[in-house]
Design goal:
The complex is a heterotrimer of chains A (about 500), B (about 120) and C (about 500). By secondary structure, chain A is mainly α. Chain A has a domain of about 230 residues. In chain A, helix 1 runs antiparallel to helix 4 and helix 15 runs parallel beside helix 19. The longest helix of chain A is centred in the middle third of the chain and has 33 residues. Chain A is globular and about 70 Å long. Chain A starts with a helix and ends with a helix. Chain B is an all-alpha fold and about 120 residues long. Helices cover about 70% and strands about 0% of the residues of chain B. In chain B, helix 1 packs antiparallel against helix 2 and helix 2 runs antiparallel to helix 3. The N and C termini of chain B lie far apart (about 60 Å). By secondary structure, chain C is an all-alpha fold. Chain C has a domain of about 220 residues. Chain C has a two-stranded antiparallel sheet. The longest helix of chain C has about 30 residues. Classes of the chains: A mainly alpha (about 500), B mainly alpha (about 120), C mainly alpha (about 500). Chains B and C meet through helix 2 and helix 3 of B and helix 5 and helix 6 of C.
Chain lengths: ~500, ~120, ~500
């Protein structure tokens, strides 16, 4: 299969899948089979692109000329390859998990759910393989809109409010700031193609570069740079598979991926370093890392805590771009994969706990580790990977980020990375510790009615609770194993990403 | 500005125009509004007619025997044009009055403030 | 032989068919005739546009009288484009109107309705096609008078007062235009627009011409509802029958903008208003205020039709921003938006008409739960709303892209920010409807029989909504023609 065909197919397959899912709405088994089949097919197609890209090839495809000189065009480079692989690969796991979760909780409108999900993946592929900023922006907006029905899936007042914040922040930053930045770039540079070494160098003065960088960084709301991070916690009203794949992987990674793309291919690392504008961005990112971690400490709702943890972790990647050294860019890019694997595991665990016990608050989860060992073991592995301890994937990206900070003489940033790791320990480890070591509460008044009705009044509430359905538990074990695997197989990842930092 | 009195018809145009305009704006009675609109339009008719008149000009009918003298004709075109505008004006008035009849049927009044009051209640 | 007379046929056919509709009396017969006429008009306008693009402007001497004495129909890229928009919207509205109007009007009035609609179409096409300034006024009044009638046919009694208000304002606007034309005739002795354009630069900015310019400008801006002369519009759109709202919103104000463009560029020449009077320093602030204020007002409307009407005034502000920039990009942007907005707003009002047919009202609370009960209609509304916001892959995005680009070219950052800010306000008012339709349960006492709108209304709706998506992806027709027209107006290579 030629490269350009594979690119177009990887966007088309999920769309066709969405159509088939919609047609099979009355037959859930067939519908879910279509989802899984589409996901597997997509992953295979994306994989066929890998050999060419790692060999230094840049497969291209052009769809149509939307505006004169601005076609919808695609070009796969290492960063996009990585993001594409992560999103497509985790979609398979997530689809299995979705089936377990959605059926386990008897959610409504499941067909709409799967359709929107497939469209979201299609637009994530479009973002990953976009060949110019225009194409990226188009799919960026499609991704925002098609995830809105997923966020508001429950359809109640909370969902409505969450959806409003979600759409409000994402659309207003992208239309108000990002589009302006894109148009300005077009005006200054005369092109929007992603070019190695950047398109702005030599064309814009220092001040213009500064303003443009500001517009881009805050325009890419999906990267959740403070103070435009509120949409991410708001999106947690969605069912957990959505939070897991979209708001830990596809959507937020699309944001930081765009940040990386803009930094590397629009501005160019050299330009960012020479003008010194990366400096303040690094401080904003550092502030986001620390503040979000501190906020996460205060959250009792498990998904909210994970959401703030995501906000914080995303800024690692922005920091990687802002430091503008070859190590930091590689570290930031690697973190896209590492964090994705770790965070999806954590969300899967949160969803599994909810499916099994209908508990959402951390303070209610004492002692659950002993009745749900697989889930909690996976949670522990995911948490350790996020913290960055070997032998787990997360340690590599933090290592390269720290190297990058050292390379650009930013000792403060190394300190920030260290403090943040400690904060990660502080907000993630107690969850696992409570699950394994604390006794389950006895008082029925504290518990959920569901659990209380199962156990006798005096018995520990965990009695009667078992692991979540197979469809939920297997995926989370797989991703936990993935975290381990990424530690040992980080080298191919590094080799894939090397060309973007050393043009 | 020596010929100010000589341009008196244009002064009349302006006076009529402002009168009509004032009536349209200031009166709440719909019939009076239409009357004001008519006065306003009439001023334009006079404007066009005035511009077609040429000093010493005669009706634009070819004089067979000029007797060697140069004959000055008035310009007929503005007059023809304004005939069209008059027709348009009549159509507007007719339509406006028809609407007023329907409004009277629906609201029982042709006073603007009373109509608004009734809409507020509904 | 017939091909040579196409410009006349464009006007004569709907004009002749209009009284026939009244004589036919039977609603369905009148409808069939109107449909036939509107399709012929569309075909003619398409042929005319292709001829103009291939061979340059067409001049047609009506009755064989040579200009400047006779009336000339003169078709260049600009008005061929406007003709196509008007004829296309007409051809989509009439199939739609059949069910929609049959529901809102008694059988006995149907013949009259189609008569008025065809007259309105004639008037709008005539305004666009004519090359004679006074003839333009006559056609303008034909379209205006028939649109007052159409609006007054609304079911609500407030339609009557809205029509009356529109009549008063419209007549004042049109009379201003006649005064301006009269003054121009006094100064130049001609009524032919091309002739006027040739003579005025020689006269320079003398007082008669400046006064004429002022009257024409105010008259035209009144007709196109530029803020703050927009007060007639919201009620007129809100209480007119649904099909009429869709038709007028998509055509009437657009034709008025065309009139303004004609006056500014063909008659007075780009140099006159831009350099001698620096009119853009007045228009751009007004247009920006229109965008921001009317979008904000739209947010607070309870009646969705009124909401879209205020949104229309805001969108007219966008067009005026583009037109006032006085650069090729700006004019292109203005005209692209003129086209795109016609398609988008036409589609949105049609979707709303479907809702009115089934639900009976269009108060925002009555839309609760409609996402489930009228999925196709609401989906069309959402797509149209996205286009109104200017989301990529929709026509609205293309408009915004060119508008902001034009602003950035002139380093006008305030305007660029206002254009994008207007989009954000649009997000809010569109999303109020979306939330109501999709995220609220249907009211307890809702009638059970609310079902999907009939195909005869859904298909035209989807044609326009589909077009608003199509022109967001494949832009060679709208942007290409708009750019050619802009270059033609600014005297570049047509």
């Amino acid at each position: 299969m030629s490269g350009s065909a594979a690119i177009l197919l990887s966007i088309l397959i999920p769309l066709v899948g969405a159509g088939l899912i919609a047609l099979n709405g009355r037959n859930p088994n067939l519908r879910e089979a279509v989802t899984l089949g589409t996901a597997a097919l997509l992953f295979i197609v994306v994989l066929t692109l890998l050999p060419e890209v790692s060999a230094g090839g840049r497969p291209q495809a052009t769809l149509i000329e939307m505006l004169p000189g601005l076609p919808l065009a695609f070009e796969v480079e290492p960063l996009g390859m990585l993001f594409g692989l992560v999103a497509a690969g985790l979609w398979i796991v997530n689809s299995v998990y979705s089936i377990g979760y959605m059926r386990g909780n008897n959610e409504k409108n499941q067909t709409r759910f799967y359709v929107c999900f497939a469209v979201a993946i299609s637009s994530a592929m479009g973002i990953a393989f976009a060949g110019n900023m225009m194409t990226l922006f188009v799919f960026y907006e499609v991704l925002t809109l098609c995830t809105y029905p997923l966020v508001t899936h429950k359809g109640n007042e909370d969902a409505r409010r969450g959806g409003r914040t979600y759409l409000g922040i994402l659309l207003s930053t992208s239309i108000g700031l990002q589009l302006l930045a894109i148009l300005w770039t077009w005006q200054v540079a005369g092109t929007l193609d992603f070019t190695e070494g950047g398109i702005l160098s030599g064309k814009a003065s220092g001040a213009v570069v500064g303003i443009l960088l500001l517009l881009y960084m805050y325009g890419i709301g999906k990267a959740a740079l403070m103070p435009f991070h509120r949409w991410l916690p708001a999106a947690m009203v969605a069912p957990t598979p959505v939070s897991a794949l979209l708001h830990a992987v596809a959507v937020v990674k699309a944001g930081v991926f765009t940040v990386m793309k803009v930094a590397v291919y629009i501005f160019g690392i050299d330009l960012l370093r020479d003008t010194g504008h990366g400096q303040w961005l690094a401080y904003i990112a550092a502030a986001t890392i620390l503040i979000a971690s501190l906020v996460a400490l205060t959250k009792d709702n498990l998904k909210a805590r994970l959401a703030y943890s995501t906000v914080s972790q995303l800024s690692y990647i922005v920091l990687g771009a802002a430091l503008a050294s070859s190590w930091s860019v590689i570290g930031g890019s690697m973190h896209i994969a590492m964090h994705a694997m770790g965070k999806i595991t954590l969300f899967f665990c949160a969803g599994a706990i909810y499916t099994a016990t209908h508990k959402t608050e951390i303070s209610q989860m004492d002692g659950l580790g002993r009745v749900m060992p697989f889930t909690y073991a996976a949670f522990l592995i995911g948490a350790l990977s996020i913290i960055g301890l070997p032998p787990l994937g997360g340690s590599w990206s933090k290592w390269y980020l720290a190297l990058g900070a050292a390379e650009s003489d930013q000792i403060v940033m190394i300190a920030v990375l260290m403090i943040s790791s400690l904060l990660n320990v502080a907000y993630l480890m107690p969850i696992a510790a409570r699950g394994f070591f604390l006794p389950a509460p006895h008082s029925p008044t504290l518990g959920e009615p569901h659990a209380a009705s199962v156990g006798a009044a005096a018995a520990p509430q965990t009695r009667g609770i078992r692991e979540a359905p197979m469809f939920c538990v297997v995926p989370l074990c797989l991703t936990a194993l993935g975290c381990v695997a990424l530690f040992f197989f980080a080298d191919p990842l590094y080799r894939l990403l090397e060309p973007i930092a050393t043009p | 500005m020596t010929n100010l009195p000589g341009l008196y018809n244009y002064w009349i145009v302006i006076v009529l125009m402002m009168t009509g305009f004032y009536v349209v704006i200031a009166r709440g009675n719909l019939i009076k509004k239409i009357v004001g609109l008519n006065i306003f339009q009439t001023s334009v008719f006079i404007l066009y007619i005035s511009m077609g008149k040429i000093d010493g000009g005669t009706a634009p009918i070819i004089v067979a025997d000029t007797g060697g003298a140069e004959v000055v004709y008035s310009n007929p075109l503005p007059h023809v044009l304004i005939l069209t505008a008059i027709v348009v004006g009549i159509a507007t008035t007719a339509l406006g009055l028809a609407l007023i009849v329907r409004i009277k049927e629906a609201y029982g009044t042709v006073e603007e403030d009373e109509i608004f009051a009734k809409d507020e209640q509904a | 032989m017939i091909a040579a007379h196409l410009p006349a046929l464009q006007i004569v056919i709907p004009l002749a068919a209009a009284p026939l509709c009244l004589l036919l009396r039977k609603g369905d017969l009148a409808w069939a005739l109107s449909l036939l006429v509107s399709l012929i008009a569309l075909a003619i306008s398409a042929v005319l546009l292709s001829q103009v693009l291939a061979h340059g402007p067409i001049s047609y001497e009506l009755g064989g009288w040579a200009p400047p004495w006779g009336i000339e129909y003169r078709i260049d890229v600009l008005n061929a484009f406007v003709l196509l928009i008007v004829a296309a919207i007409g051809a989509v509205t009439i199939p739609y109107a059949r069910r929609s109007i049959a529901d809102e009007l008694p059988e006995s009035q149907l013949g009259g309705f189609y008569t008025a609609l065809l007259l309105c179409l004639t008037g709008l096409l005539g305004v666009a096609i004519t090359g004679d300034a006074f003839n333009l006024f006559v056609f303008l009044e034909i379209s205006s008078l028939s649109s007052y009638v159409l609006i007054a046919m609304g079911r609500d009694r407030r339609a009557l007062t809205a029509a009356f208000q529109y009549l008063v304002m419209g007549t004042i606007g049109a009379t201003f235009i006649v005064i301006g034309i009269g003054l121009l005739y006094m100064a130049t002795g001609t009524l032919n627009m091309a002739d006027l354009g040739a003579r005025i630069p020689a006269l320079g900015a003398n007082r008669t011409i400046i006064v004429a310019f002022a009257f024409l400008t105010v008259g035209a801006t009144l007709k196109l509802a530029l803020f703050p002369l927009h007060f007639w519009l919201p009620n007129a759109y809100a209480y007119a029958p649904s099909a009429v709202t869709a038709f007028l919103a998509a055509t009437a104000t657009k034709v008025s903008i065309y009139i303004l463009l004609r006056f500014f560029y063909t008659i007075f020449g780009p140099a006159f208003q831009a350099e001698d009077l620096t009119l853009h320093s007045l228009f751009i602030p007004l247009a920006v205020i229109a965008v921001l204020v009317c979008s904000t007002v739209a947010i607070f409307q309870i009646n969705v039709k009124r909401m879209l009407a205020y949104s229309s005034i805001a969108q007219i502000g966008y067009m005026m921003i583009g037109v006032s920039f006085d650069t090729v990009t700006g004019l292109t942007a203005g005209m692209v938006h003129l086209f795109n907005h016609a398609v988008i707003k036409g589609g949105l009002f049609m979707a709303l008409g479907c809702i009115v047919l089934r639900v009976g009202t269009c108060q925002i609370d009555d839309l609760a739960g409609l996402g489930r009960r009228m999925p196709l209609t609401m989906f069309a509304f959402v797509l149209g709303g996205l286009s109104l916001i200017g989301v990529p892959l929709t026509a609205g995005f293309i408009s915004k892209w060119y508008l902001v680009q034009a602003a950035i070219e002139l380093d006008d950052w305030v305007v660029a920010a206002a254009i994008l800010g207007g989009s954000l306000l649009a997000v809010i008012y569109v999303w109020r409807v979306v939330e109501s339709a999709y995220l609220r349960p249907a009211p307890e006492n809702a009638p059970d029989e609310v079902s999907e709108a009939p195909w005869s209304m859904l298909v035209p709706t989807y044609i326009l909504i589909g077009a608003s998506i199509y022109f967001g992806v494949e832009t060679s027709l709208n942007v290409g023609v708009a750019r050619a027209a802009a270059q033609f107006l600014l005297g570049g290579a047509g």
